Every structure is written in C-alpha cells, then in structure tokens.
Amino acid sequence: MTETREDTPPEEKGPSAGQRFWQELTTGNIMVTLLSVVLALVIGAVLVAISDPRVQDAAGYFFARPGDLFSATWSSVGDAYAALFTGSLIDVSEYTVGRALRPFGETLTNATPLIAAGLAVAIAFRAGLFNIGAEGQIILGAIFAGYAGFAFDLPIIVHVTAAVVAGIVGGAIWAGIVGVLKAKTGAHEVIVTIMLNNIAAFLLAYLLGTVAFQRPGRQDPISPFVDESAQLPRLVESTRVHAGFLLAILAAAIIWWLLSRSTLGFRLRAVGNNPNAAHTAGMSVAGTYVVVFVLAGMLAGLAGASLALGTERHLNTGISGGLGFDAITVALLGRANPWGTVAAGILFGALRAGGVTMQARTGTPIDLVLVVQALIVLFIAAPPLIRAIFRIRVRAKEPVATASKGWES
Amino acid sequence: MKLELRGITKRFGPVVANDGIDLTVLPSEIHGLLGENGAGKSTLMNVLYGLLEPDGGTISVDDRELALTSPNDAMAAGIGMVHQHFMLVPVFTVAENVMLGAEQTYGPGFLDLAAAREQVREVSERYGFDVDPDAVVEDLPVGVQQRVEIIKALVRDARVLILDEPTAVLTPQETDELIDIMRQLKAAGTSIVFITHKLREMKAVADRITVIRLGAVVGEASPDSSENELASMMVGRAVSLMADRGAGEPGDHVLQVDGLTVVDGREQVVVDDVSFDVRAGEILAVAGVQGNGQTELVEAILGLQERVTGSARLDGSNGTELLGMSVRQVLHAGVGFIPEDRKVDGLVGQFTVAENLILDLYDQPPFAAGPRMKPAVMRDNARQQVREFDIRTDSINTLAGTLSGGNQQKLVVARELSRPLKLLIAAQPTRGLDVGSIEFVHSRMVAERDRGTAVLIVSTELDEVSALADRILVMCRGRVIGIVPGDTNRDVLGLMMAGLAPEDAKAEASARPDDRGAP
C-alpha cells in the first residue's frame, strides 16, 4: 500500500476553530509557553520604562546625554522587577527566616484559589467545554463554606471538613446547573456560565444584607468571621499560606489520575476530542457534560472554600475579585494539564503578590501585572507569533496526517 | 493546447509526494491519471493548478514555460480545474457563481449579470449542458452543479481541464452523462486530465492513461488493458478485484426492520416506511445514490437518530427491539458499526491507536477494573489487533489522526470485529480507500459473514455492491425501490437508484444497447 504520501495541501478542509484551538492548547510546545511568559515580561519592561517620569525626562535630553536615558531605563525596570521578585519570592532584607519567606507565602496564598479554579477550567477544556463560570462557582463555594463556617458550632476537625465539603457542594450545584442545561437543552455553556456569574455575584451581595449573613453591628455587606474551628490552619508561622494550598495540590493529583488513568477520564477526553465518535462508540455525551461541570464546580467550590476559610476567613462582596477569570488564563497557560495548571497558578500567584510590593516600593501601577497576564494569554493564543519571533523550527507535521483527505469518494 | 510537465518534484517535509513526474497532455486528448489514494495525483494537480509550488521541475504550455504561483496564473495559462469538492457558493445563482472572481462590470462598478447569464447560456447551449443561469446552485442536483464548475472553467477559456475524481459524487447515470460531456469537450478541442481510481470509467473514456504509484510515474497504459492489468500497475502487485467468496448460507433472521421512518431536523422524512430483514450468514447491501436516506437508516438502527418510528428487532421478529435503546445498549446487544465517515464518527484523531481500539470497550473488563483503566491490557490488545489487521503504524501510541485513510479504516474495522457480533453494519466501508485496503476490508466482511454474522452494508459504489452482496436493497428518496438478488445487472441497479421500479428498470435496461461494458 502507498500509505506514506501526501496528496492534498494541508489547508484543505481544516478542523473547526474550536478543534484547532483545542489542539493548539494541548499539543502546544512547552517552549512556546515559557517564551510567552518571557516575552510578556520584556514588553512589560518597556511599558514600565516609558511610563516612568524619570525615563521620560531623560528622553527629553537624549541627544545631549544619551547615557542618562539608558541608565534611567535600567534602574526603572530593574527596580520594578526587583520589587516584583522581592514581593513574590523572598525578601532578603528581613532578619528572620519566617519573615524573609513571607512573600513566597503570599505567592502560595494567592496561588491556592487560582490552582483550584484553574483546574475547574482545565477539566472543562479537556472535555471540549469552556467554563467561563469559575467566578460564580467560586462565589457559591465561598457562600456555602463561609455559612457553614460561622453559622454552625462543630468540633474542631469536623467543622473545617464540613465547611470545605459544603463549599465543594456549593460550587458543584452552581456548575451542575450549567451541565444539566447543556445536556437537556443544548444551551451553550459560555452564555449560561457568564449569566450565572452575575447571578452569583448579586446573590452574594443580597445575602450579605440579610440577618443570617451580615456581621452583627455592621451596616456594610460583610459576614461574621468563620469560627476558629472552621478555619483552614496556617502552614507556616507569620505567613498567610494555609492548608487550602495542600488541598489544591491534592485536587491536582486527583484530576491528573482521573484524566490519565480512569475510565471517566478516557470518556471525558474522547468527548472533548470528538463528540461524534464518542457518541457513535456508545458514550453518553450529554451525561459526560453534566459530570464534567459537576467536577469543575467542585474544584471551583474548593477555591471558594479556601478563600472563605483560609485567606479571608469571612465573606465580602469582593471575595473572588475576578479570580475566576484569571483561572481561565491559568488553565490556558497550564495547557489544560493538571500539573501545568499548578505551575501556572503559582506563577500568577507570584505576579499578584509581587505586584502589590512593586506598586508600594516603586510606584509602578499594579495594572502592569494585568498587562503582563494579558500579554501572556495573547502570545499563548498565537503560537505562530511566538514561533516567528523566536524562530522556533516547527517539526514538520507528519504529512500522512492529511493523506487521503481529498479522496473521499 | 499541449501541456507538458517535466520532472515535477514536490516534498512535504521528509515525504516525497511527487518524484520527478513527467506528463504530457496532447491537444484534444483525454488523459487519464490513475493511481491509488495517496499516490500523489492530487498533489500533482495542485502543483499544476498553482496551489502548490513544486520543489523542482517545469510546466510548459505549447513549449512555453510557465511559472505558476496561484490559480490565477494557471487560469491565465488556460488551465482549469474542477475540484472533487465543488467550489460553489450554494446560495448564489449559476450565473453569479460563474462570474465570481472574474466579475464584469459596467458604469461605475455595477455587476454585469446579464453578460454572465449570456455566457452561461452560450456555453451551456454549445455543449448541451442544459443549465439554467438563474437557478440557485443549492437547488441543483450534484451532476448539474458539476457542470456549473465545468462552465466556470470554460468561461475562463480553459483549454486544459483537470477533473479531480469527478465521478465520486455522481449516480451511474450522471457518470454516463459526464462521460458524454467529456467526449464533446474533447471534440471541441479541449484537453482533459481525468483523475480517478475507478478503472471502469478510466477505460471507458481515456485516450491514454498514466499510472502513478508512490509519487512516481510507473508507466503508461492503453485503455484497452484489462482492469486487472491496470489495477496491478496501480498497486504494484497482482490484485483480485472481486472479493473472493462463495455463496452465503443464510440462516436465521437476525435483523428484522419494519416500517422504519426517520424525520430529520428540517422536518423532512428522510427514511420512509422501510422494511427488510437480514439473515445470519448473508450480506445485504443497501445501494443508492448518496443522500437518499441510507445513512439515516443505519443511524436509526444504531440509535443515533432522534425521531424514529417503526421497529427494528435483533434476533428475528420476537427479538430485542433496538429502536429506543441507547447506542451503548445497541452495541452491547451484539451490533458492530463501521460509520460512514471514519474521521468524524469512527475514531478520535487525538487518541492513540491503542486508545481508539477500545473506544467502545474502555470501561469493560478486561480493559478496566471499576473506575481504573488497565493500560497494559489496552496495549496488549492493540499490539495483537495491529498485527492481525495489518494496521500500518509506527507504534500503537501513534495518534490515530496521523494514519492514512486505509489504516484508519482498518483500525475501525479491527475494533468493531473484535467483539462477538450478531450483526455488522458497515456504512461506506471502503470510501476513499486504495485498492489494497479495499481488498482487505472486503475479505474481512466476507469472513465475518462466513462466521454466521448478519452483515448490512451501505454503499454508493456499484462495484462494491456487486462484489459483496448476496441481496441488494436499492433506496431512493428514503424509500425502498426493491430488493433484488446480488447478481443483478449494473444497468438495472443504476436505473433503480434513479427511482425506477425493478420491473421497469429491467425492461428499460434490456431495451438499451449495451455499450457501457456492463457485466
């Protein structure tokens, strides 16, 4: 047989945009991911420099003393990124180990909900679904966990366990609605999740005005602190990092096993790659959608629980603060892979933690971090651009991949 | 116009798709290009049409060398192409489609539709195409749409016309009409490059035949060569074109279908009150032109269609009712299914060969224990199936999407035959496959029949139907036209596929002079 020849140009009859996106997402080269981060930081540096008044002044007399511009740029960018580093990893100017490591603790604290919610988005990606609703699922998780945390009196270990489980259930219910709607009516999950995000946010705002939720003696929308017995314990003295981080890592391990070793993962990936073939092979596509959304909601609910019980330890209207949207970026950066999502979550946690320090020390707006995050997404979404910029040679795609495409008769 | 290709070489990465191909098309000649799928015919034609740039070699027209970088260059040089998949805008009229890309205008940029209409009418009359310039393309039958493509090329002064697998989508009658059109064009001085892997058509129409194998020209053949000679040139070894099989031994009724009706999403009745049965140890072939309800029929039996009425029972008239069951239940009841479009419905391209081989058994022992998959068992199974079904792959961990069509199909066949079956349903089991793979798939179907399985095959290819069927059910517009014996004359089948009742078809076929080499 002549099975090694290519007969049609590859652009013929390409896969749909969604499938292409998915393929880029999961088969993308790790180099592209790393270089996207590097490139985003480089462009961020340019923005830091041109927005710094000292650099602008030096540029004004560039032709008189060009050296000034370079040194001003160097110090501006150097200071900003040094602060970003100090604020996210280690502060060498501190005297005790605990305090010196405090920035890294801050990084992990920020990373915890990002990892859990990132997994919620990633697992949906693997099933070919876009879960834009992590934000709402986090909020519901936080509401359930927080209420369980301050409204009940339970023994010490039982209480925190029950509160975390309540958060997971809350997220699962919220996302389960999406799964059921999609499975029963074909409603598009993107629309439904976006709508549910808003509903969740207003639900939280409403609840915080009710007697059951509002902190006694307060007029603003804020809940009581959760009982000490329901708090996720701190892991390291004088940092904020709490046991929720371990739960997020455990969740990543479970999701990894589920995706790569379980029958459910097999079904989920099959449905994500080719729902037609999965259906023809007897898998229930609609049922898979429900399961995936429930799983995703559980993960986002865990993120919400870690916020309500570990980081904030009470509820307020800004408890999620857009984490659910950053989670989408985290999942993208992590290539929808559980361990990739963990790494991306830590990176984004570091950017968030370092951004605060950077703004405080050098006056560089924290918005720079948002710009860098946005640029990372942009570059990851456009791998050919990264390849072109860094001249990465793409290994010639197996041409047999498209053989016979033009020959269906 | 004389067209000469000299030493055309085209590489895709490490793969040489065309290796120094020489081809000369003389004026007023129908030149057949014969080769298996993947032999490099399409690549060569895409080079000739300016879609691909060759890595070496020259193209010349009337001894003048051309540099083709786009289809526009090719059209300017008088080369026209009719693609296998039509490049027409369905909601435009014929005239609008013909004018698209070469719009004539008058005044300040008004489209001169009248001129386009006139052009279509003129070409249509000159060759007796019978095409209405104001008809909307999506309302036209496929054969007429193809003529619109040909008109498009002719209006642009094509003197060499490339027809890429033009008969793949046509009924036998439409194919005959196309052959007439080709002869007329030739008489009017147009040269034609005719690409196909169907030997019968090639013999019927070509003046000279160039055979390509593995990207290189293996030789020239005369249309007088026998089909077996052509096939062995194409494949590079002796092949048997008829599936090697004895008569079937029909046993019990395995599938009993009664009054099955399917309504599709557009409220069309696509399968209309269909009844038939398939017995153990027999192959029933459902013949018909593409899109006459055959696909929906088998999908309904499998549980893939939503709005189905009637009945389809497994194990005879008192057996299990399949309609209303989930796909999974149907498969587990002992039905194997080879879907029509392997890439869409048959396999998951991003899954490995090993994973695809257990796509319907992944959660059953021995491949799974509870929620846990057993990758080692999966790999053992894959190694065994790859060997048994001769699936050519680098490894069992290769992504299925990167296999060639023939090997993808073998993968699907291997998977479906790896379970004990009562009924095998195969829709277009050899679509787009090369001769070698067709031989293999056919022999497997016959072997399955001989093991006592009831086999239901849907095919639009008369060759396939004749080669395999013990009985033939012909469908047209969702209805059963008739069920006839497997050795029914091709002309009769062709007429039945166009909707003639069996008796009328027989009368009509015998009244005609038999000039098309029917068996």
UniProtKB/TrEMBL annotation, chain A:
Organism of origin: Phytoactinopolyspora halophila
Keywords: Cell membrane, Membrane, Transmembrane, Transmembrane helix
MF GO annotations: transmembrane transporter activity
Pfam families listed in its UniProt record: BPD_transp_2
A Gene Ontology cellular-component term: plasma membrane
Topological type in the membrane: Multi-pass membrane protein
Compartments where located: Cell membrane
Residues annotated as transmembrane: 30-50, 129-150, 156-178, 190-213, 241-259, 289-309, 341-360, 366-386
Protein name (record): ABC transporter permease
UniProtKB/TrEMBL annotation, chain B:
Gene3D superfamilies: P-loop containing nucleotide triphosphate hydrolases (3.40.50.300)
Keywords: ATP-binding, Cell membrane, Membrane, Nucleotide-binding, Repeat, Translocase, Transport
Subcellular localization, as worded in the UniProt entry: Cell membrane
CDD domains: ABC_Carb_Monos_I, ABC_Carb_Monos_II
Domain ABC transporter: 3-239, 255-502
Superkingdom of origin organism: Bacteria
SUPFAM superfamilies: P-loop containing nucleoside triphosphate hydrolases
Membrane topology: Peripheral membrane protein
GO cellular component: plasma membrane
GO molecular function terms noted in the UniProt entry: ATP binding; ATP hydrolysis activity
Location, primary (coarse class): membrane
Protein name: Heme ABC transporter ATP-binding protein
